[in-house]
């Protein structure tokens, strides 16, 4: 089976709702379903998060990061962290856990290396999107963080299936049109559905897949596009059409109010680095 046939097979399965998740991902998706419930109280969320030691540690760490702890007051309990972050940020953390579980769900070292690099790219995009949303485009920063975390989830799912389709991801950077034309939208949308990603976030990510960056940026899609271009680690899976290289990204600048994008990025460097570091834990 060649790569196009493999893409079409996986996309057809995804289109029918036949998504093959590892057991660990299934458990995390059930946790996400509980957090998405509008009746989920923060105390219930704290109990659910506390039941997963790794997620509990990450929750406390992100609550103490510069991005969420501007008062400089450290906390050490899951309950206090949940109250500081709120349920929406917890949804982003669980989504991050799901994405990373997808990337590490196969035994091949080469595929795991691709997944690790893809997560490094994703974490940079998410951290940058949160700051750009808050300081530049003024869209909801929690939504931007979540969108940045899940924007490559279709590619992570593809990696989780690569062991079943030898050669599936070989040369994808050199031939990104195969993925864009034969899998990204169908597979991505199906995984978004499983993760209960809101429709407006899905539309913004789809615009990112095919759109061109607008300067100055205004929408959530623009926010993601700019963050993707500014990320110092490129995706190892494919190059987005019109994407800027990490080297060229250093030249992106424009006026923002009385300042510039570059000035905002310089002011926010520690915040972005702190959030990225927590996501990489």
Automatic annotation (TrEMBL):
Tell me the ranges covered by the HDOD domain, including all copies: 21-211
InterPro entries in alphabetical order: HDOD, RNase_Y/CdgJ
List, alphabetically, the PROSITE patterns matched. HDOD
Top-rank taxon, per record: Bacteria
Tell me the protein's name: HDOD domain-containing protein
């Amino acid at each position: 089976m060649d790569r196009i046939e493999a893409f079409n097979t996986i996309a057809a399965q995804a289109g029918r709702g036949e998504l093959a998740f590892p057991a660990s991902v299934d458990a995390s998706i059930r946790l996400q379903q509980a957090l998405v419930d509008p009746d989920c109280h923060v105390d219930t969320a704290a109990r659910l998060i506390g039941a997963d030691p790794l997620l509990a540690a990450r929750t406390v760490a992100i609550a103490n990061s510069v991005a969420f702890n501007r008062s400089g007051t450290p906390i050490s309990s899951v309950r206090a962290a949940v109250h500081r972050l709120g349920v929406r940020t917890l949804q982003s953390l669980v989504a991050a856990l799901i994405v990373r579980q997808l990337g590490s769900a196969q035994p091949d070292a080469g595929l795991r290396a691709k997944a690790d690099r893809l997560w490094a790219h994703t974490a940079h995009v998410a951290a940058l999107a949160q700051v750009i949303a808050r300081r530049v485009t003024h869209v909801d920063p929690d939504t931007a963080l979540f969108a940045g975390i899940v924007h490559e989830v279709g590619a992570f799912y593809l990696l989780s299936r690569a062991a079943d389709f030898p050669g599936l991801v070989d040369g994808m950077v050199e031939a990104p049109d195969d993925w864009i034309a034969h899998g990204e939208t169908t597979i991505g949308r199906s995984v978004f559905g499983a993760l209960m990603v809101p429709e407006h976030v899905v539309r913004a990510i789809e615009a990112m897949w095919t759109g061109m960056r607008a300067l100055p940026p205004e929408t959530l899609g623009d926010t993601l596009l700019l963050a993707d271009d500014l990320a110092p680690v490129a995706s190892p899976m494919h190059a987005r059409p019109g994407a800027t290289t990490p080297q060229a990204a250093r030249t992106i600048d424009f006026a923002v109010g009385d300042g510039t994008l570059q000035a905002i990025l310089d002011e926010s460097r520690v915040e972005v680095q702190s959030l990225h570091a927590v996501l990489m834990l």
